[in-house]
Design brief:
The chain is α/β, with parallel strands linked by helices and 300 residues long. The chain has nine helices and eight strands. It has one domain: Rossmann fold. Helix 4 crosses helix 5. It comes from Janthinobacterium psychrotolerans.
Length: 300
């Protein structure tokens, strides 16, 4: 094991699990050791008028034609996080030939559910319109997230009302990817989460599992093995949502990986930590299997 990898693992061990992998120093260390040589980064693009409505685009430096596109939302219990800390995700996706969009979104206490999700949908809608100029194919669009961000991705992909505000449908997505996401978490136990969703008056419509339909996009759901995620129960959330999708006849890939926890699952996308688990390989296989041919004419 290299000194660099040992250092990163030691840093990750210091991350409080309740922070959902948003502690600044470890993430900056991961970013510093993650190669960005395959990426062209366009930062600070506004997708709305508010300070938190900005995103960064990571495009592969070498790609023939338009590339599949992944909009990524980070976790942080809907009350913390910033897109710059997840540059390693953008570089990882760009290294596989995809255009990655890493979006900030408004957080509690500035906003609650559902405004957080409205930002997520707005970022996806911006991407559908603008990503072609960054080398991305808007007809091969995916959403992805980790932890709370996986919830955002799930709701954008399943709750038809969110994209409808922008003249889009979940069927406009080629698929969605959730990493250790909470998809069925009522009643809420976490005291930091309760005010985000107005608990105990949380509407059942806030739960992704209640939005599964027979037209939901294909899904890739990845979580740590049972017992290795102390924040989000993989069996209830990943397993429960996968079962609900299958019951509707929807394609879903459900994976539980060894060697990772709630926090290190997303960290395993970074180049120095990929030996922890083949997370990026699974994501790439899913995107490639659902991408189909490049679009030749404008979508919008």
């Amino acid at each position: 094991m290299s000194i660099a990898r040992t250092t990163i693992l030691a840093l990750l061990a210091l991350i409080p699990l309740t922070a959902g992998l948003v502690a600044c120093s470890p993430l900056r260390a991961i970013n510093a050791l993650s190669s960005g040589s395959a990426s062209t980064v366009t930062p600070d693009l506004p997708y709305g008028p508010l300070p938190r409505q900005k995103l960064d685009v990571y495009a592969p430096k070498s790609h023939a034609g338009l590339a599949p596109v992944v909009v990524f939302f980070y976790g942080g219990n809907w009350n913390s996080g910033q897109r710059a800390d997840y540059a390693f995700v953008g570089h990882a996706l760009a290294s596989r030939g995809y255009v990655a969009v890493i979006a900030d979104y408004r957080l509690y206490p500035q906003v609650h559910y559902p405004e957080i999700l409205q930002d997520a949908a707005r970022a996806v809608a911006w991407t559908a319109v603008e990503v072609r100029r960054h080398g991305g194919d808007p007809a091969r669009l995916f959403v992805m997230g980790h932890s709370a961000g996986a919830y955002n991705a799930a709701m954008v992909a399943l709750d038809t009302s969110l994209l409808a505000r922008h003249g889009m449908r979940p069927q406009d997505l080629r698929g969605w990817i959730g990493l250790a996401g909470p998809y069925d978490f009522l009643p809420i136990d976490n005291p930091d989460t309760k005010p985000v969703f107005f608990f105990p008056d949380t509407p059942t419509s806030s739960q992704p599992i209640h939005h599964v339909t027979a037209t939901a996009p294909p899904a890739l759901l990845i979580a740590p093995q049972r017992g290795h995620d102390k924040l989000v129960d993989p069996q209830r959330n990943t397993g429960g949502l996968a079962a609900a999708l299958r019951a509707q006849g929807r394609p879903v890939t459900e994976l539980y990986l060894d060697g990772v926890s709630h926090a290190t699952l997303v960290a395993s996308l970074a180049s120095p930590l990929r030996r922890l688990a083949p997370t990026l390989d699974h994501i790439s296989a899913f995107i490639d299997a659902n991408s189909g041919p490049e679009t030749k004419t404008p979508v919008r």
